[in-house]
Amino acid sequence: MEKLVYGNHTKLVTIKDKSIISLILHSYADEDKKKILNTTANKPRIILDIISACKLPQTSSYRKINSLIKNGLLIPNGKIPRKYGKIVTKYISLFENLEINIVKNDISVKAKFSEDAYQAVFRMMREKIINFKKENMPNSKSYHAVETESILMSSVSMIPFLIKKGIIKV
Predict the structure, then answer these.
(1) Which of 81, 112, 131, 159 has the greatest number of CB atoms lying within 10 Å of its CB?
(2) What pLDDT does 157 receive?
(3) For the CA atoms of 3, 117, 31, 48, what is the dihedral angle to 10 degrees?
């Protein structure tokens, strides 16, 4: 049974879901992924800045960054213009701080969410899941949901877990 405790105003959760704990532990066990997540823990960065700050090879870094994005541990947080009109995305780590507890065979993770990541996830979910459109009736002030693009997320991503547990409310 999954259990989740949500702290007041601190965005602290205790995660006991085995698949989510496994995802977190495997990501932080990989030294390169750990560097990427630590580099983006407090400040959103574009991918090239992440690679440069971590001093990692480009090819493997892109693969690892994409894996972290897919798993919901690295969150898109805004866009910035670059040379020649190109717009690039900034990313931030979902967690600001993690505490892993092992008591006998029971593993739990206490996680503090980054405020920027929390807000970015909320914005992302609102933009992609729910769009409201005013009905085309002249005197109507009502709204209805319209069909939107679907979001492809891994079944082991943090995002569905956050929504399911009510951490992020859409």
Answers:
(1) 159
(2) 67
(3) 160
How far is Cα of residue 47 from the mean position of the Cα atoms in its chain? 15
| Host H or E run for residue 81 | strand 74-81
Query: What are the b/e assignments for 90-124, b being 16+ CB within 10 Å?
Result: bbbbbbbeeeeeeeeeeebbebebbebbbebbeeb
Integer Cα distance of 53 and 47 in angstroms = 10
Q: Is the dihedral of CA 79, 82, 69, 116 positive or negative?
A: negative
| Full-model pTM | 0.72
Angstrom distance (rounded) from CA 146 to CA 160: 21
Q: Which residues of the chain have pLDDT under 70?
A: 1-11, 125-157, 159-170
Question: Into how many domains does the chain fold?
Answer: 1
